[in-house]
């Protein structure tokens, strides 16, 4: 099965603070649930919550559970190296004191999450606390903030200065921002 992993642990073993994704075979931040099953520990990965801010905002797999959100002290900038001429730059999330990054927190299936991690090689996976933009979502979820993953741009993938995205990529970002009700200023930036 794709969402379970069994490992033998000695009796009295304390739960670890990280879990290993069976699809990626690497440790991820502590967003998993662990359950004891007799002598074995079974790790059941929760549907990963991910703060997305680029083209993933419009992908079909993100149209399930999705909540508009923001990250304080971060910025979305067009500084991720792309393919010259066709896609010169992509959006990258960076730490930026006093700025706000807007995006969407989505839940991905384990398979989609694994594929996304394999595809987004120029980014480091970090754990962030996203603030929901809509009070109705906060009431529904019982919290105004969600701990989630985000793709943070690695310095070696950063261009020296912010560039202009392709019209195709900018349309995708604008469509995603509109679909999820992000602030008008964000939509206008992408248009």
Annotation keywords:
single chain; 4 helices; alpha+beta; 191 residues
Mind explaining what this structure looks like?
It is a single chain. Helix 3 (167-179) packs antiparallel against helix 4. The protein starts with a strand and ends with a helix. It is α+β, with helices and mostly antiparallel strands. It is globular. It has 4 helices and 10 strands, in the order ββββββββαβαβαα. A 5-stranded mixed β-barrel has the order 6-8-7-9-10. A 3-stranded antiparallel sheet has the order 1-5-4, with no helix packed on it. 19% of the residues lie in helices and 45% in strands.
Percent of residues in beta strands: 35-45%
Alpha carbon gyration radius: 18 Å
Estimate percent helicity. 10-25%
Major sheet details: 5 strands, mixed, barrel
Give the mean pLDDT: 76
Quick one: overall form? globular
What order do the helices and strands follow?
EEEEEEEEHEHEHH
Please outline what is shown here.
By secondary structure, this protein is of the alpha+beta class.
Topology:
Elements: E1 4-8, E2 19-21, E3 26-28, E4 32-37, E5 40-45, E6 49-52, E7 66-83, E8 87-107, H1 110-119, E9 123-132, H2 135-141, E10 145-153, H3 167-179, H4 184-190
Parallel strand pairs: 6-10
Antiparallel strand pairs: 1-5, 2-3, 4-5, 6-8, 7-8, 7-9, 9-10
Helix pairs in contact: 3-4
């Amino acid at each position: 099965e794709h969402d379970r992993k069994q490992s033998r642990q000695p009796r009295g073993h304390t739960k670890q603070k990280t879990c290993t994704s069976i699809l990626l075979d690497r440790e991820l931040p502590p967003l998993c649930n662990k359950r004891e099953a007799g002598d074995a520990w079974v790790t059941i990965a929760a549907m990963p919550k991910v703060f997305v801010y680029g083209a993933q905002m419009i992908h079909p797999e993100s149209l399930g559970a999705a909540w508009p959100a923001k990250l304080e002290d971060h910025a979305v900038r067009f500084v991720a190296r792309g393919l010259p001429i066709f896609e010169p730059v992509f959006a990258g999330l960076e730490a930026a004191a006093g700025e706000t990054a807007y995006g969407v927190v989505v839940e991905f299936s384990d398979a989609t999450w694994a594929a996304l991690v394999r595809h987004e090689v120029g980014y480091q996976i970090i754990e962030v606390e996203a603030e929901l933009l809509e009070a109705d979502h906060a009431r529904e979820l019982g919290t105004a903030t969600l701990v989630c993953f985000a793709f943070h741009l690695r310095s070696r993938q950063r261009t020296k200065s912010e560039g202009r995205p392709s019209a195709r990529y900018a349309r995708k970002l604008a469509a995603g921002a509109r679909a999820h009700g992000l602030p008008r200023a964000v939509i206008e930036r992408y248009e």
